[in-house]
Amino acid sequence: MKQTFEVLNVKCNGCANTLKTKLAKQFGNVEVNLESMPRQITLDIEPGQMDELRNVLKTIGYPLSDEDLSAVENATTKAKSFISCAIGKMNT
Question: How open is the CA angle 15-10-83, to the nearest 5 degrees?
Fold first, then answer.
């Protein structure tokens, strides 16, 4: 079922490219809305895949907006997002 989620730390097309690339294998086509704040992703997800989505997003630095992150986790995901963004820019 297609659903839309708000994600943090998404800044640009480099970030969007990383999200599309990293989520494509598990979730197929991913749409990234860079016009909204917080940014939104839309993808096909089954009810049992929610934990997998959360884990992948946190791993690449773009947690869901409803995540309850500690100060350390917040800083870590922001740092990861800068790296993911740079990789996304290089891969465009």
Answer: 50
Q: What is the pLDDT of residue 38?
A: 93
pLDDT of residue 91: 80
DSSP symbol at 55: H
Q: List the one residue out of 21, 65, 78, 70 whose CA is nearest residue 39.
A: 65
Per-10-residue mean pLDDT, the chain, length 92: 96 96 94 96 95 96 94 93 91 76
Q: How many CB atoms lie within 10 A of CB 79?
A: 12
Structure tokens at 79: 């740092």
Q: How far apart are CA 39 and CA 71, in angstroms?
A: 21
Instruction: Give the single-character DSSP code of 64.
Output: B
The SS3 call for residue 35 is coil
* Structure tokens given for 27: 């979730």
Report which residue type is found at 69. Answer: L
